[in-house]
Amino acid sequence: MFIDFTQVELFAGKGGAGAVSFRKEKYIPKGGPDGGDGGRGGHVLFKVDTGLHTLHDIRYRKKYQAENGHHGGGSNKTGRNGTDILIPIPPGTLIRRKNEENLLADLTKDGQSFIACHGGQGGKGNARYKTATQRAPRTAQKGTPGESGFFDIELKILADVGLVGFPNSGKSTLLSKLSAAKPKIAEYPFTTLEPQLGIVKYGEYNSFVMADIPGLIKGASDGKGLGLQFLKHIERNKIHIYIIDVQEKFPADILEALKKELAQFNQNLLRKPYLICRSKMDLDIDLSDGWKSFSHEFTDISAINGQGLSELVQKIVKLIELQN
């Protein structure tokens, strides 16, 4: 199951208390204060793991509690810091306080981390309170509480290329042929109910990430069909590929409708570079007058017999390189 939103409650650890202690050595009846400081409470932090592609693992664990700092000890021993809790997340994760718009972190790179809740500070031991007039202080400081709160965790997948098209236009078949992804494929609308990611390799060592965004319909930006649920994932793509079925009678209208849905969701989506593909060219059909008058540049492809796929990959690579 593809999970791209969840809420969690986080508790950082409390700082350990400082110690009240005095030196106890033979022949030194009045040893001075030697109480050590308490340790810091554990942090709660998120860290990007590129092996993850969904928030599935944290959806079912709603609460995270870091360890408290340990108390200070005699002989000026500082308490051990509480163990941090590290929550692995996929690249493209956004973190906000619950029901707040302010973005705390946008984590996109492998290994990138963010401390959502800081552990409390350890308290001072009585050794720190010794003065010229107070030789034997019996005062020590408690540790401070750790930070806590509810957080909204949202994922916007990172892909170089986003496949955009109405249901049953051939996006899933194309993704499966160009990559090792295995999306569900069938001849009925809304077969793809969640985004699918695939890695397309080219050359000897190079690759790019392609995403099949669940099929749009007219009115998706108003909540129809799968609605806004997955449109947000298109925002991260460097380029779009509009997929239009060769069987469509009015391809110009289809292209306009797709662009309209993207624009109504986020006008900036139309500023991204794009390619147009005429899919299912393996079908033996007569082209409509709409295709004959279609004025946009496009690439003919067939994911069934491989027509145009190498050419398409070359065009994609050139566009991606221009963006980098």
TrEMBL record:
Record's protein name: OBG-type G domain-containing protein
Record carries keyword Nucleotide-binding: yes
NCBIfam families per UniProt: Obg_CgtA, PRK12297.1, PRK12299.1
MF (Gene Ontology): GTP binding; GTPase activity; magnesium ion binding
Similarity section: Belongs to the TRAFAC class OBG-HflX-like GTPase superfamily. OBG GTPase family.
Swiss-Prot/TrEMBL keywords: GTP-binding, Nucleotide-binding
PROSITE patterns found in the cross-reference section: G_OBG, GTP1_OBG, OBG
Domain Obg, first and last residues per copy: 1-158
Xref: Gene3D superfamilies: GTP1/OBG domain (2.70.210.12), P-loop containing nucleotide triphosphate hydrolases (3.40.50.300)
Ranges where the OBG-type G domain occurs: 159-324
Keyword Nucleotide-binding annotated: yes
HAMAP family: GTPase_Obg
Any one Pfam family match given in the protein's UniProt record, by short name: MMR_HSR1
